[in-house]
Design goal:
InterPro entries: AAA+_ATPase, ABC_transporter-like_ATP-bd, ABC_transporter-like_CS, P-loop_NTPase
CATH architecture of the largest domain: 3-Layer(aba) Sandwich
Pfam families: ABC_tran (PF00005)
Strand order of the largest sheet: 6-7-8-3-9-10
Organism: Massilia forsythiae
Distance between the termini: 33 Å
Number of helices: 9
Structural class: alpha/beta
CATH topology of the largest domain: Rossmann fold
Number of strands: 14
Largest sheet: 6 strands, mixed
Bound molecules: adenosine-5'-triphosphate
CATH class of the largest domain: Alpha Beta
Number of domains: 3
Shape: globular
Order of helices and strands: EEEHEEHEHHHEHEEEHEHEEEH
Keywords: ATP-binding, Cell membrane, Membrane, Nucleotide-binding, Transport
Protein name: ATP-binding cassette domain-containing protein
Helix content: 25-40%
């Protein structure tokens, strides 16, 4: 469906924001994970035809989106990170405005989308009273007006409370049944339960692209738990990769990424996805 071939984006002579990324994506939720500045937004903007690769190609159903961007735009929904709503208009008016811009004439579609994002009861309220989560859901409804095949959502859960996060996550999971939904985040738990694949970006490069299960499988045997005293903790901090340290009285309960048992009494632990990604990062660094 969507294929990235050696996509690179440079800003000026020195900055490579996206560095030779190749990916092949189909329907389902893809989590694009990376720290601030990793290149997620730049990559999404290129997929959304808002920026052009400096080199490489992005193909949608085999056609280069740079050659006919309007064909891609017709099949795309995009919710940018800094999505804003005119606060004095209602959700309904906002949707009607964008429906007119996008040439969507069916008023029932607006109603259905407001129901899908659970804003139908609030449709006539001014958006000035909306919470961050409600605004984000309105953003998704807007992005779905043209019934896109690809939905690109940049950092959708930033600033949301846990309940809104969960609601938003479920909505994206539902949409991923028949669309390609690309969601960027730096919070692994936001996508770990819904993403069929995780694309990990680091310094503009694609560090890995795999299923959560495969990422977990690679980390098994490398994540340890141990309870140690303060001196041993200091030693381990210098000699291993400590993933987590919890003080418990005189002892420190540790989770450690290490290729073999890091200290006497250490036990192999089942990694969380976050730990697996960190363990993978360390393993790559050690191998380099
Ligand atoms: N228009 C631009 N001009 C110059 N540099 C840019 C531009 N857009 C992004 N960058 C740089 O490219 C790199 C990648 O930025 P990008 O916003 O894509 O990262 P990100 O992973 O989305 O980060 P965040 O989570 O903070 O949004 C950063 O070093 C950023 O400063």
């Amino acid at each position: 469906m969507l294929e990235l071939q050696n996509v690179t984006k440079r800003f000026g002579a020195d900055l490579v924001a996206v560095d030779d990324v190749s990916l092949h994506l189909h329907a389902g939720v893809v989590g694009l994970i990376g720290h601030n500045g990793a290149g997620k937004t730049t990559l999404m903007q290129m997929i959304a035809t808002l920026a052009r690769p400096s080199s490489g190609r992005i193909l949608f159903d085999g056609a280069d989106i740079a050659v006919r961007p309007e064909a891609m735009r017709r099949r795309l929904g995009y919710l940018p990170q800094d999505f804003g709503v005119y606060r004095n208009v209602s959700a309904l008016e906002f949707m009607q405005y964008f429906a007119a811009l996008k040439g969507v004439r069916d008023p029932a579609r607006i109603r259905r989308l407001l129901e899908l994002v659970n804003l139908h009861d609030q449709a006539r309220r001014p958006a000035s009273g909306f919470s961050g989560g409600m605004l984000r859901r309105l953003g998704i409804a807007q992005a779905l007006l043209n019934d896109p095949d690809i939905l690109v959502v940049d950092e959708p859960t930033a600033g949301l409370d846990p309940e809104e996060r969960l609601r938003f996550r479920n909505l994206l999971a539902e949409l991923g049944f028949d669309k390609l939904v690309i969601v960027s985040t730096h919070i692994v738990s936001d996508v770990e339960s819904i993403a069929g694949r995780l694309a990990i970006m680091k310094n503009g490069r694609l560090a890995a692209c795999d299923t959560p299960d495969a990422i977990l499988a690679r980390a098994r045997g490398r994540v340890w738990s141990a309870s140690v005293d303060a001196d041993e903790y200091e030693r381990l901090r210098a000699a291993t990769h400590v993933l987590q340290a919890l003080r418990q009285g005189e002892q420190v309960a540790l989770r450690i990424a290490h290729p073999y048992s890091p200290c006497p009494g250490a036990r192999l632990a089942e990694p969380s996805l976050e730990e697996a990604l960190m363990a993978q990062r360390y393993a790559v660094r050690e191998a380099a």
